[in-house]
Amino acid sequence: MSGGSQLENANPVIFQRTGERLQTANDEDEDVHDPIDDREIFDMIRSINDPEHPLSLEELNVVEQVRVKVNDAENMVDIEFTPTIPHCSMATLIGLSIKVKLLRSLPERFKIDVQITPGSHASEEAVNKQLADKERVAAALENSSLLEVVNQCLSNKSG
Fold first, then answer.
1. Which pTM does this prediction carry?
2. N or C: which end of the chain has fewer CB within 10 A?
């Protein structure tokens, strides 16, 4: 959200948030093996802030639980996200924010794959290539300005 620039999608459709996940006694018990599942990952990323709007990625339908796939036994997390418009210039930043949130939240054993939902973005292949490249992701996170924007997307906004 740079001052003075116009929003690419000035009037996005806003979707209703899903309800909170009910915690069971087994969820609270540290002695019970509790594999990480799709809903747990979705809960980690649903409240990430959109870089352009004062809304979450869930409220903009950029992330949906049906596009989160977890295989705890094989240490794999696959996420597809859908930008609000096909030429969204924020797609790489959104994907990077999702990836960083999961890298910070999950055990190191997980391989995290974040991609644009097929057919939903004009530069899908290029964005996916950037998000899959460990060196490019690491270099992006060494850029203090970019890291600040990512951290703003990941911050808990009150209100």
1. 0.82
2. C
